[in-house]
Amino acid sequence: MVRSQGVAYLFLGPWLLGAIGLTVAPMVVSLYLSFTDYDLFNSPRWVGFDNYAKLFGDDPRYLHSVGVTLRYVAWSVPLKLVLALAVALLLNSLRGKGQAFFRSAFYAPSLLGASVGLALAWRAIFDTWVDTPDHALLTIVLLSAWQFGAPMVIFLAGLQQIPRDLVDAAAVDGAGWWRRLWSVTLPMLSPVLFFNLMLETIHAFQAFTQAFVVSGGRGGPADSTLFYTLYLYERGFTEFRMGYASAMAWVLLVAIAVITAVLFRTSRYWVFYGDER
Amino acid sequence: MRRAGVVVLCLAGLALVSYPIAWLISASLTPVEDLVAHLRSLFPGRITADGYRGALEGAGGESFWTFLGNSTIVASGAVIGNVVSCSLAAYAFARLRFRLNGPLFAFALLTIMMPAHVTLIPQYVVFQHLEMIDTFVPLILPKLLATDAFFVFLMVQFMRGIPRELDEAARIDGCGPVRNYRYVVLPLSRPAMVTTAIFTFIWTWNDFFAQLIYLSSTENYTIPMGLRLFIDQTSSSSYGSMFAMSVLSLVPIGLFFLAFQRFLVAGVATTGLKG
Q1: Which of A55, A246, B47, B111 has the fewest Cβ atoms within 10 angstroms?
Q2: Cβ-proximal residues to B56 (8 Å cutoff; 6+ apart), any chain
Q3: pTM for this one?
Protein backbone atom coordinates (compact mmCIF):
# COMPACT_ATOMS: atom_id res chain seq x y z
CA MET A 1 0.00 0.00 0.00
CA VAL A 2 1.15 3.47 -0.77
CA ARG A 3 1.29 5.49 2.44
CA SER A 4 -0.26 8.89 1.95
CA GLN A 5 -2.95 10.44 4.12
CA GLY A 6 -3.36 13.75 2.32
CA VAL A 7 -3.26 12.44 -1.20
CA ALA A 8 -5.87 9.80 -0.35
CA TYR A 9 -8.41 12.48 0.46
CA LEU A 10 -7.57 14.22 -2.79
CA PHE A 11 -8.61 11.07 -4.64
CA LEU A 12 -11.62 10.64 -2.40
CA GLY A 13 -12.64 14.28 -2.88
CA PRO A 14 -15.52 13.87 -5.32
CA TRP A 15 -16.87 10.80 -3.53
CA LEU A 16 -16.62 12.49 -0.10
CA LEU A 17 -18.37 15.58 -1.41
CA GLY A 18 -21.16 13.37 -2.77
CA ALA A 19 -21.34 11.22 0.36
CA ILE A 20 -21.74 14.26 2.58
CA GLY A 21 -23.65 16.61 0.27
CA LEU A 22 -25.88 14.16 -1.56
CA THR A 23 -26.28 11.34 0.95
CA VAL A 24 -25.66 12.13 4.63
CA ALA A 25 -26.95 15.71 4.69
CA PRO A 26 -30.08 14.93 2.62
CA MET A 27 -30.81 11.96 4.88
CA VAL A 28 -30.68 14.16 7.96
CA VAL A 29 -32.82 16.80 6.26
CA SER A 30 -35.41 14.28 5.04
CA LEU A 31 -35.63 12.87 8.56
CA TYR A 32 -36.32 16.40 9.79
CA LEU A 33 -38.81 17.07 7.00
CA SER A 34 -40.68 13.89 7.89
CA PHE A 35 -41.72 15.63 11.13
CA THR A 36 -42.99 18.71 9.31
CA ASP A 37 -45.61 19.94 6.95
CA TYR A 38 -43.72 21.15 3.90
CA ASP A 39 -45.01 22.12 0.49
CA LEU A 40 -41.77 23.36 -1.11
CA PHE A 41 -42.95 27.00 -1.16
CA ASN A 42 -43.67 27.86 2.49
CA SER A 43 -41.12 27.01 5.14
CA PRO A 44 -41.52 23.65 6.92
CA ARG A 45 -43.88 23.61 9.92
CA TRP A 46 -43.07 21.20 12.75
CA VAL A 47 -45.89 18.71 13.35
CA GLY A 48 -44.17 16.06 15.46
CA PHE A 49 -45.23 12.52 14.70
CA ASP A 50 -48.37 13.60 12.81
CA ASN A 51 -47.17 12.35 9.42
CA TYR A 52 -46.30 8.93 10.80
CA ALA A 53 -49.53 8.73 12.77
CA LYS A 54 -51.51 9.62 9.67
CA LEU A 55 -49.67 7.03 7.55
CA PHE A 56 -50.63 4.17 9.81
CA GLY A 57 -53.86 5.42 11.29
CA ASP A 58 -55.61 7.62 8.80
CA ASP A 59 -54.54 6.85 5.26
CA PRO A 60 -56.16 3.71 3.84
CA ARG A 61 -54.53 4.31 0.45
CA TYR A 62 -51.11 4.22 2.09
CA LEU A 63 -51.82 0.92 3.83
CA HIS A 64 -53.24 -0.34 0.56
CA SER A 65 -50.02 0.62 -1.26
CA VAL A 66 -48.03 -1.28 1.38
CA GLY A 67 -50.21 -4.32 0.72
CA VAL A 68 -49.77 -4.05 -3.05
CA THR A 69 -46.00 -3.75 -2.67
CA LEU A 70 -45.75 -6.69 -0.26
CA ARG A 71 -47.85 -8.81 -2.61
CA TYR A 72 -45.61 -7.80 -5.51
CA VAL A 73 -42.45 -8.68 -3.58
CA ALA A 74 -43.91 -11.98 -2.36
CA TRP A 75 -44.85 -13.06 -5.91
CA SER A 76 -42.18 -11.55 -8.13
CA VAL A 77 -39.06 -12.42 -6.14
CA PRO A 78 -39.66 -16.18 -5.73
CA LEU A 79 -40.99 -16.51 -9.28
CA LYS A 80 -37.97 -14.76 -10.74
CA LEU A 81 -35.48 -16.70 -8.63
CA VAL A 82 -37.03 -20.11 -9.35
CA LEU A 83 -37.01 -19.34 -13.07
CA ALA A 84 -33.42 -18.08 -12.84
CA LEU A 85 -32.30 -21.19 -10.97
CA ALA A 86 -34.08 -23.58 -13.35
CA VAL A 87 -32.54 -21.98 -16.43
CA ALA A 88 -29.11 -21.85 -14.77
CA LEU A 89 -29.31 -25.59 -13.99
CA LEU A 90 -30.32 -26.24 -17.58
CA LEU A 91 -27.47 -24.15 -19.00
CA ASN A 92 -24.99 -25.70 -16.59
CA SER A 93 -25.44 -29.02 -18.38
CA LEU A 94 -24.34 -27.38 -21.63
CA ARG A 95 -20.73 -26.54 -22.35
CA GLY A 96 -18.73 -24.06 -24.38
CA LYS A 97 -20.29 -21.95 -27.12
CA GLY A 98 -23.83 -23.22 -26.61
CA GLN A 99 -23.81 -22.22 -22.96
CA ALA A 100 -22.29 -18.81 -23.70
CA PHE A 101 -24.89 -18.13 -26.40
CA PHE A 102 -27.93 -19.02 -24.30
CA ARG A 103 -26.51 -17.26 -21.24
CA SER A 104 -26.21 -14.00 -23.20
CA ALA A 105 -29.57 -14.44 -24.90
CA PHE A 106 -31.46 -15.08 -21.66
CA TYR A 107 -29.66 -12.20 -20.02
CA ALA A 108 -30.78 -9.62 -22.61
CA PRO A 109 -34.31 -9.06 -21.16
CA SER A 110 -32.71 -7.89 -17.90
CA LEU A 111 -31.34 -4.91 -19.81
CA LEU A 112 -34.45 -4.20 -21.87
CA GLY A 113 -37.12 -4.82 -19.23
CA ALA A 114 -36.28 -1.74 -17.19
CA SER A 115 -37.15 0.58 -20.08
CA VAL A 116 -40.31 2.55 -20.69
CA GLY A 117 -40.38 1.26 -24.27
CA LEU A 118 -40.68 -2.36 -23.30
CA ALA A 119 -43.17 -1.66 -20.53
CA LEU A 120 -45.39 0.02 -23.15
CA ALA A 121 -45.24 -3.14 -25.25
CA TRP A 122 -46.02 -5.22 -22.18
CA ARG A 123 -49.06 -3.11 -21.46
CA ALA A 124 -50.36 -3.67 -24.99
CA ILE A 125 -49.66 -7.42 -25.03
CA PHE A 126 -51.53 -7.90 -21.75
CA ASP A 127 -54.11 -5.22 -22.50
CA THR A 128 -57.09 -7.22 -21.25
CA TRP A 129 -55.35 -8.01 -17.96
CA VAL A 130 -54.06 -4.50 -17.43
CA ASP A 131 -57.62 -3.21 -17.27
CA THR A 132 -58.86 -5.61 -14.61
CA PRO A 133 -57.94 -4.96 -10.98
CA ASP A 134 -57.53 -8.69 -10.31
CA HIS A 135 -54.87 -9.18 -12.95
CA ALA A 136 -53.05 -5.88 -13.36
CA LEU A 137 -50.52 -6.64 -10.62
CA LEU A 138 -49.89 -10.08 -12.12
CA THR A 139 -48.89 -8.38 -15.38
CA ILE A 140 -46.17 -6.45 -13.58
CA VAL A 141 -45.06 -9.58 -11.70
CA LEU A 142 -44.66 -11.34 -15.05
CA LEU A 143 -42.68 -8.41 -16.45
CA SER A 144 -40.34 -8.73 -13.48
CA ALA A 145 -40.05 -12.51 -13.89
CA TRP A 146 -39.25 -11.99 -17.56
CA GLN A 147 -36.02 -10.32 -16.40
CA PHE A 148 -34.72 -13.47 -14.71
CA GLY A 149 -31.44 -13.23 -16.68
CA ALA A 150 -29.34 -11.28 -14.18
CA PRO A 151 -29.86 -13.64 -11.21
CA MET A 152 -29.55 -16.56 -13.68
CA VAL A 153 -26.05 -15.44 -14.67
CA ILE A 154 -25.11 -15.20 -10.98
CA PHE A 155 -26.54 -18.67 -10.28
CA LEU A 156 -24.65 -20.11 -13.23
CA ALA A 157 -21.38 -18.60 -11.99
CA GLY A 158 -22.12 -20.17 -8.58
CA LEU A 159 -22.91 -23.57 -10.10
CA GLN A 160 -19.58 -23.56 -11.89
CA GLN A 161 -17.79 -23.12 -8.55
CA ILE A 162 -19.20 -26.40 -7.21
CA PRO A 163 -16.51 -29.08 -7.45
CA ARG A 164 -17.52 -31.72 -10.01
CA ASP A 165 -16.19 -34.62 -7.96
CA LEU A 166 -18.61 -33.75 -5.15
CA VAL A 167 -21.60 -34.25 -7.44
CA ASP A 168 -19.98 -37.29 -9.07
CA ALA A 169 -19.30 -38.87 -5.67
CA ALA A 170 -22.98 -38.49 -4.80
CA ALA A 171 -23.90 -40.13 -8.10
CA VAL A 172 -21.55 -43.05 -7.41
CA ASP A 173 -23.23 -43.44 -4.01
CA GLY A 174 -26.48 -43.92 -5.88
CA ALA A 175 -28.09 -40.49 -5.46
CA GLY A 176 -30.56 -39.68 -8.25
CA TRP A 177 -30.92 -36.30 -9.96
CA TRP A 178 -33.33 -34.84 -7.41
CA ARG A 179 -31.32 -36.13 -4.50
CA ARG A 180 -28.09 -34.64 -5.89
CA LEU A 181 -29.86 -31.32 -6.44
CA TRP A 182 -31.38 -31.23 -2.97
CA SER A 183 -28.48 -32.60 -0.93
CA VAL A 184 -25.41 -31.40 -2.80
CA THR A 185 -26.06 -28.67 -5.37
CA LEU A 186 -28.53 -26.50 -3.44
CA PRO A 187 -26.57 -26.45 -0.16
CA MET A 188 -23.42 -25.58 -2.09
CA LEU A 189 -25.33 -22.88 -3.95
CA SER A 190 -27.05 -21.44 -0.88
CA PRO A 191 -24.69 -18.44 -0.44
CA VAL A 192 -25.46 -17.39 -4.03
CA LEU A 193 -29.16 -17.98 -3.48
CA PHE A 194 -28.99 -15.80 -0.37
CA PHE A 195 -27.20 -13.05 -2.27
CA ASN A 196 -29.76 -13.11 -5.09
CA LEU A 197 -32.65 -13.17 -2.65
CA MET A 198 -31.35 -10.09 -0.83
CA LEU A 199 -30.63 -8.17 -4.00
CA GLU A 200 -33.95 -8.95 -5.67
CA THR A 201 -35.98 -8.26 -2.52
CA ILE A 202 -34.38 -4.87 -1.97
CA HIS A 203 -34.95 -3.96 -5.61
CA ALA A 204 -38.52 -5.23 -5.69
CA PHE A 205 -39.49 -2.93 -2.82
CA GLN A 206 -38.35 0.04 -4.90
CA ALA A 207 -39.95 -0.97 -8.22
CA PHE A 208 -41.37 2.06 -10.00
CA THR A 209 -41.03 2.42 -13.77
CA GLN A 210 -42.91 -0.70 -14.83
CA ALA A 211 -45.80 -0.01 -12.48
CA PHE A 212 -45.92 3.61 -13.58
CA VAL A 213 -46.05 2.75 -17.28
CA VAL A 214 -48.29 -0.30 -17.10
CA SER A 215 -50.81 1.49 -14.88
CA GLY A 216 -50.75 4.69 -16.93
CA GLY A 217 -48.99 6.60 -14.15
CA ARG A 218 -51.73 6.34 -11.54
CA GLY A 219 -51.44 2.87 -10.04
CA GLY A 220 -54.79 1.85 -11.48
CA PRO A 221 -57.16 0.25 -12.17
CA ALA A 222 -58.78 0.86 -8.79
CA ASP A 223 -55.35 1.36 -7.14
CA SER A 224 -54.55 -2.31 -7.80
CA THR A 225 -50.98 -1.41 -8.86
CA LEU A 226 -50.42 1.47 -6.47
CA PHE A 227 -46.85 0.58 -5.56
CA TYR A 228 -45.22 2.21 -2.54
CA THR A 229 -42.92 4.32 -4.70
CA LEU A 230 -45.80 5.33 -6.96
CA TYR A 231 -47.77 6.62 -4.00
CA LEU A 232 -44.67 8.38 -2.67
CA TYR A 233 -44.24 10.06 -6.04
CA GLU A 234 -47.88 11.11 -6.08
CA ARG A 235 -47.76 12.62 -2.59
CA GLY A 236 -44.35 14.23 -2.96
CA PHE A 237 -44.21 15.37 -6.55
CA THR A 238 -47.76 15.87 -7.76
CA GLU A 239 -49.31 17.12 -4.50
CA PHE A 240 -46.02 18.53 -3.16
CA ARG A 241 -46.63 17.15 0.31
CA MET A 242 -42.92 16.80 0.87
CA GLY A 243 -43.02 16.24 4.62
CA TYR A 244 -45.47 13.39 4.21
CA ALA A 245 -43.44 11.88 1.37
CA SER A 246 -40.27 12.12 3.49
CA ALA A 247 -41.99 10.16 6.25
CA MET A 248 -42.91 7.54 3.62
CA ALA A 249 -39.30 7.39 2.46
CA TRP A 250 -38.06 6.83 6.00
CA VAL A 251 -40.58 4.08 6.66
CA LEU A 252 -39.37 2.42 3.45
CA LEU A 253 -35.74 2.69 4.55
CA VAL A 254 -36.51 1.19 7.95
CA ALA A 255 -38.62 -1.57 6.40
CA ILE A 256 -35.84 -2.53 4.00
CA ALA A 257 -33.28 -2.44 6.82
CA VAL A 258 -35.47 -4.68 9.01
CA ILE A 259 -36.12 -7.17 6.21
CA THR A 260 -32.43 -7.28 5.36
CA ALA A 261 -31.60 -7.93 9.03
CA VAL A 262 -34.24 -10.67 9.27
CA LEU A 263 -32.92 -12.34 6.12
CA PHE A 264 -29.42 -12.24 7.60
CA ARG A 265 -30.70 -13.77 10.82
CA THR A 266 -32.45 -16.65 9.07
CA SER A 267 -29.46 -17.21 6.80
CA ARG A 268 -27.54 -19.04 9.50
CA TYR A 269 -30.13 -21.80 9.37
CA TRP A 270 -30.11 -22.38 5.65
CA VAL A 271 -27.04 -20.82 4.10
CA PHE A 272 -24.09 -23.18 3.99
CA TYR A 273 -20.60 -21.74 3.80
CA GLY A 274 -17.90 -24.22 2.84
CA ASP A 275 -15.63 -23.53 5.81
CA GLU A 276 -18.07 -24.44 8.61
CA ARG A 277 -19.00 -28.09 8.99
CA MET B 1 -28.91 -37.27 -27.02
CA ARG B 2 -29.50 -35.63 -23.64
CA ARG B 3 -27.57 -32.59 -24.79
CA ALA B 4 -29.86 -32.28 -27.82
CA GLY B 5 -32.86 -32.32 -25.46
CA VAL B 6 -31.41 -29.50 -23.41
CA VAL B 7 -30.73 -27.43 -26.52
CA VAL B 8 -34.30 -27.95 -27.77
CA LEU B 9 -35.63 -26.90 -24.37
CA CYS B 10 -33.41 -23.81 -24.37
CA LEU B 11 -34.53 -22.86 -27.87
CA ALA B 12 -38.17 -23.20 -26.83
CA GLY B 13 -37.50 -21.01 -23.79
CA LEU B 14 -35.72 -18.48 -25.95
CA ALA B 15 -38.69 -18.30 -28.33
CA LEU B 16 -40.98 -17.60 -25.39
CA VAL B 17 -38.67 -14.99 -23.87
CA SER B 18 -38.15 -13.22 -27.21
CA TYR B 19 -41.86 -12.98 -27.92
CA PRO B 20 -42.40 -9.51 -26.36
CA ILE B 21 -39.46 -8.09 -28.35
CA ALA B 22 -40.63 -9.71 -31.58
CA TRP B 23 -44.14 -8.46 -30.90
CA LEU B 24 -42.90 -4.90 -30.32
CA ILE B 25 -40.96 -4.88 -33.59
CA SER B 26 -43.95 -6.34 -35.42
CA ALA B 27 -46.32 -3.80 -33.88
CA SER B 28 -44.03 -0.93 -34.88
CA LEU B 29 -44.33 -2.02 -38.53
CA THR B 30 -48.05 -2.80 -38.60
CA PRO B 31 -50.68 -0.34 -39.83
CA VAL B 32 -52.78 0.95 -36.95
CA GLU B 33 -56.04 -0.59 -38.25
CA ASP B 34 -54.47 -4.05 -38.43
CA LEU B 35 -52.85 -3.61 -35.03
CA VAL B 36 -56.15 -2.87 -33.35
CA ALA B 37 -57.84 -5.78 -35.09
CA HIS B 38 -55.14 -8.38 -34.40
CA LEU B 39 -53.43 -7.07 -31.28
CA ARG B 40 -51.69 -10.26 -30.32
CA SER B 41 -50.55 -11.73 -33.63
CA LEU B 42 -47.07 -11.31 -35.05
CA PHE B 43 -46.86 -9.66 -38.50
CA PRO B 44 -50.55 -9.85 -39.43
CA GLY B 45 -49.78 -9.13 -43.08
CA ARG B 46 -49.32 -5.58 -44.23
CA ILE B 47 -46.17 -3.70 -43.31
CA THR B 48 -45.81 0.06 -43.08
CA ALA B 49 -43.17 2.59 -42.12
CA ASP B 50 -45.85 5.06 -40.98
CA GLY B 51 -45.07 4.30 -37.35
CA TYR B 52 -41.44 5.26 -37.80
CA ARG B 53 -42.40 8.39 -39.72
CA GLY B 54 -44.64 9.34 -36.81
CA ALA B 55 -41.98 8.43 -34.25
CA LEU B 56 -39.38 10.68 -35.89
CA GLU B 57 -41.88 13.54 -35.82
CA GLY B 58 -41.84 13.05 -32.08
CA ALA B 59 -44.45 13.99 -29.53
CA GLY B 60 -45.63 17.05 -27.66
CA GLY B 61 -44.31 19.39 -30.36
CA GLU B 62 -40.70 18.19 -30.16
CA SER B 63 -39.06 15.91 -32.70
CA PHE B 64 -37.52 12.56 -31.84
CA TRP B 65 -34.07 14.04 -32.50
CA THR B 66 -34.52 16.44 -29.58
CA PHE B 67 -35.27 13.55 -27.24
CA LEU B 68 -32.37 11.55 -28.68
CA GLY B 69 -29.99 14.49 -28.23
CA ASN B 70 -31.08 15.04 -24.63
CA SER B 71 -30.78 11.35 -23.78
CA THR B 72 -27.32 11.30 -25.32
CA ILE B 73 -26.17 14.34 -23.31
CA VAL B 74 -27.47 12.89 -20.04
CA ALA B 75 -26.06 9.41 -20.69
CA SER B 76 -22.64 10.71 -21.82
CA GLY B 77 -22.39 13.01 -18.80
CA ALA B 78 -23.27 10.14 -16.50
CA VAL B 79 -20.74 7.80 -18.12
CA ILE B 80 -17.89 10.31 -17.92
CA GLY B 81 -18.86 11.26 -14.36
CA ASN B 82 -19.03 7.70 -13.12
CA VAL B 83 -15.83 6.50 -14.79
CA VAL B 84 -13.78 9.44 -13.50
CA SER B 85 -15.18 9.88 -10.00
CA CYS B 86 -15.62 6.19 -9.17
CA SER B 87 -12.13 5.27 -10.35
CA LEU B 88 -10.60 8.06 -8.25
CA ALA B 89 -12.42 6.90 -5.13
CA ALA B 90 -11.75 3.24 -5.88
CA TYR B 91 -8.03 3.92 -6.23
CA ALA B 92 -7.96 5.50 -2.78
CA PHE B 93 -9.92 2.64 -1.21
CA ALA B 94 -8.02 -0.13 -2.97
CA ARG B 95 -4.43 1.12 -3.03
CA LEU B 96 -3.86 3.90 -0.50
CA ARG B 97 -3.41 3.62 3.23
CA PHE B 98 -5.27 6.21 5.31
CA ARG B 99 -6.90 6.14 8.68
CA LEU B 100 -10.57 6.12 7.69
CA ASN B 101 -10.21 3.69 4.78
CA GLY B 102 -12.15 0.88 6.47
CA PRO B 103 -15.07 2.87 7.91
CA LEU B 104 -15.53 5.02 4.81
CA PHE B 105 -15.54 2.01 2.50
CA ALA B 106 -18.05 0.26 4.76
CA PHE B 107 -20.23 3.37 4.52
CA ALA B 108 -19.93 3.35 0.72
CA LEU B 109 -21.10 -0.29 0.65
CA LEU B 110 -24.03 0.57 2.90
CA THR B 111 -25.24 3.28 0.52
CA ILE B 112 -25.56 0.66 -2.25
CA MET B 113 -28.42 -0.96 -0.37
CA MET B 114 -30.12 2.30 0.60
CA PRO B 115 -33.29 3.32 -1.24
CA ALA B 116 -32.69 6.58 -3.10
CA HIS B 117 -36.02 7.89 -1.82
CA VAL B 118 -34.59 9.02 1.54
CA THR B 119 -32.29 11.51 -0.16
CA LEU B 120 -34.58 12.39 -3.03
CA ILE B 121 -36.70 15.14 -1.52
CA PRO B 122 -33.93 17.24 0.09
CA GLN B 123 -31.91 16.92 -3.12
CA TYR B 124 -34.90 18.14 -5.07
CA VAL B 125 -35.38 21.06 -2.68
CA VAL B 126 -31.73 22.08 -3.03
CA PHE B 127 -31.79 21.87 -6.83
CA GLN B 128 -35.02 23.84 -6.77
CA HIS B 129 -33.38 26.62 -4.74
CA LEU B 130 -30.44 26.63 -7.14
CA GLU B 131 -32.97 26.97 -9.98
CA MET B 132 -31.64 23.83 -11.61
CA ILE B 133 -34.94 22.01 -11.99
CA ASP B 134 -35.60 21.29 -15.66
CA THR B 135 -31.86 21.21 -16.44
CA PHE B 136 -29.57 18.19 -16.79
CA VAL B 137 -27.48 19.19 -13.75
CA PRO B 138 -29.46 17.11 -11.18
CA LEU B 139 -29.13 14.10 -13.49
CA ILE B 140 -25.39 14.40 -14.09
CA LEU B 141 -23.91 16.07 -10.99
CA PRO B 142 -24.52 13.06 -8.66
CA LYS B 143 -22.51 10.89 -11.08
CA LEU B 144 -19.60 13.34 -10.98
CA LEU B 145 -19.64 12.87 -7.20
CA ALA B 146 -19.56 9.06 -7.34
CA THR B 147 -22.95 8.49 -5.73
CA ASP B 148 -23.26 5.18 -7.63
CA ALA B 149 -21.24 3.36 -4.98
CA PHE B 150 -21.89 0.15 -6.85
CA PHE B 151 -19.21 1.06 -9.34
CA VAL B 152 -16.78 2.16 -6.64
CA PHE B 153 -17.17 -1.35 -5.22
CA LEU B 154 -16.71 -2.96 -8.65
CA MET B 155 -13.49 -1.04 -9.30
CA VAL B 156 -12.13 -1.59 -5.80
CA GLN B 157 -12.55 -5.34 -6.29
CA PHE B 158 -10.73 -5.12 -9.58
CA MET B 159 -7.92 -2.84 -8.41
CA ARG B 160 -7.22 -5.04 -5.40
CA GLY B 161 -6.32 -7.79 -7.83
CA ILE B 162 -3.55 -5.77 -9.46
CA PRO B 163 -0.19 -6.93 -8.00
CA ARG B 164 1.16 -4.66 -5.28
CA GLU B 165 4.70 -5.10 -6.60
CA LEU B 166 3.76 -2.71 -9.39
CA ASP B 167 3.14 0.06 -6.83
CA GLU B 168 6.54 -0.65 -5.32
CA ALA B 169 8.26 -0.62 -8.68
CA ALA B 170 6.54 2.61 -9.64
CA ARG B 171 7.51 4.19 -6.33
CA ILE B 172 11.16 3.24 -6.78
CA ASP B 173 11.01 4.77 -10.25
CA GLY B 174 9.82 7.98 -8.60
CA CYS B 175 6.06 7.81 -9.25
CA GLY B 176 3.87 9.37 -6.58
CA PRO B 177 0.29 8.16 -6.04
CA VAL B 178 -1.06 10.47 -8.74
CA ARG B 179 1.20 9.16 -11.46
CA ASN B 180 0.87 5.62 -10.13
CA TYR B 181 -2.90 5.97 -10.58
CA ARG B 182 -2.64 7.52 -14.01
CA TYR B 183 0.07 5.31 -15.56
CA VAL B 184 -0.08 2.02 -13.65
CA VAL B 185 -3.44 1.27 -12.06
CA LEU B 186 -5.77 3.03 -14.50
CA PRO B 187 -4.49 1.34 -17.67
CA LEU B 188 -4.62 -2.06 -15.95
CA SER B 189 -8.19 -1.46 -14.75
CA ARG B 190 -9.60 -1.04 -18.22
CA PRO B 191 -12.03 -4.00 -18.02
CA ALA B 192 -13.61 -2.57 -14.86
CA MET B 193 -13.84 0.87 -16.48
CA VAL B 194 -15.50 -0.55 -19.58
CA THR B 195 -17.99 -2.49 -17.46
CA THR B 196 -18.79 0.67 -15.48
CA ALA B 197 -19.18 2.73 -18.64
CA ILE B 198 -21.54 0.23 -20.31
CA PHE B 199 -23.75 -0.31 -17.28
CA THR B 200 -23.91 3.42 -16.55
CA PHE B 201 -24.91 4.08 -20.13
CA ILE B 202 -27.64 1.45 -20.18
CA TRP B 203 -29.05 2.36 -16.76
CA THR B 204 -29.07 6.07 -17.52
CA TRP B 205 -30.59 5.46 -20.93
CA ASN B 206 -33.39 3.45 -19.30
CA ASP B 207 -33.72 5.62 -16.22
CA PHE B 208 -37.14 7.11 -15.78
CA PHE B 209 -37.69 8.10 -12.16
CA ALA B 210 -35.05 10.85 -11.91
CA GLN B 211 -35.93 12.23 -15.34
CA LEU B 212 -39.63 12.23 -14.49
CA ILE B 213 -38.93 14.27 -11.39
CA TYR B 214 -36.38 16.72 -12.71
CA LEU B 215 -37.37 17.39 -16.32
CA SER B 216 -40.51 19.43 -16.88
CA SER B 217 -40.47 21.12 -20.30
CA THR B 218 -40.86 19.06 -23.43
CA GLU B 219 -37.76 20.54 -25.07
CA ASN B 220 -35.65 19.01 -22.28
CA TYR B 221 -37.32 15.61 -22.44
CA THR B 222 -35.23 12.51 -22.90
CA ILE B 223 -36.50 9.50 -24.86
CA PRO B 224 -38.24 7.79 -21.89
CA MET B 225 -39.97 11.08 -21.13
CA GLY B 226 -40.93 11.46 -24.78
CA LEU B 227 -42.45 7.98 -24.63
CA ARG B 228 -44.26 9.00 -21.51
CA LEU B 229 -46.26 11.50 -23.53
CA PHE B 230 -47.92 8.50 -25.17
CA ILE B 231 -48.92 6.93 -21.86
CA ASP B 232 -51.75 9.33 -21.21
CA GLN B 233 -53.15 9.07 -24.71
CA THR B 234 -55.92 6.55 -24.88
CA SER B 235 -56.58 6.79 -28.61
CA SER B 236 -55.12 3.99 -30.65
CA SER B 237 -54.26 6.28 -33.58
CA SER B 238 -50.80 6.96 -32.16
CA TYR B 239 -50.05 3.28 -31.44
CA GLY B 240 -47.80 2.91 -34.47
CA SER B 241 -45.60 5.89 -33.55
CA MET B 242 -45.50 4.86 -29.91
CA PHE B 243 -44.22 1.37 -30.68
CA ALA B 244 -41.83 2.63 -33.34
CA MET B 245 -40.36 5.10 -30.85
CA SER B 246 -40.13 2.29 -28.29
CA VAL B 247 -38.12 0.23 -30.77
CA LEU B 248 -35.86 3.19 -31.54
CA SER B 249 -35.33 3.74 -27.82
CA LEU B 250 -34.13 0.16 -27.40
CA VAL B 251 -31.78 0.13 -30.41
CA PRO B 252 -28.77 1.64 -28.56
CA ILE B 253 -29.19 -0.88 -25.75
CA GLY B 254 -29.38 -3.71 -28.27
CA LEU B 255 -26.22 -2.49 -29.99
CA PHE B 256 -24.35 -2.11 -26.71
CA PHE B 257 -25.49 -5.56 -25.72
CA LEU B 258 -24.26 -7.12 -28.97
CA ALA B 259 -20.93 -5.30 -28.79
CA PHE B 260 -20.18 -5.81 -25.10
CA GLN B 261 -22.12 -8.88 -24.04
CA ARG B 262 -19.01 -10.53 -22.65
CA PHE B 263 -18.26 -7.57 -20.38
CA LEU B 264 -21.88 -7.37 -19.30
CA VAL B 265 -22.25 -11.03 -18.41
CA ALA B 266 -18.84 -11.14 -16.70
CA GLY B 267 -19.73 -8.00 -14.75
CA VAL B 268 -22.96 -9.55 -13.49
CA ALA B 269 -21.36 -12.90 -12.69
CA THR B 270 -18.56 -11.44 -10.58
CA THR B 271 -20.27 -8.60 -8.76
CA GLY B 272 -23.95 -9.33 -8.90
CA LEU B 273 -24.75 -6.15 -10.80
CA LYS B 274 -28.43 -5.99 -11.49
CA GLY B 275 -29.23 -5.69 -15.17
Answers
A1: B47
A2: B63, B64, B65
A3: 0.92
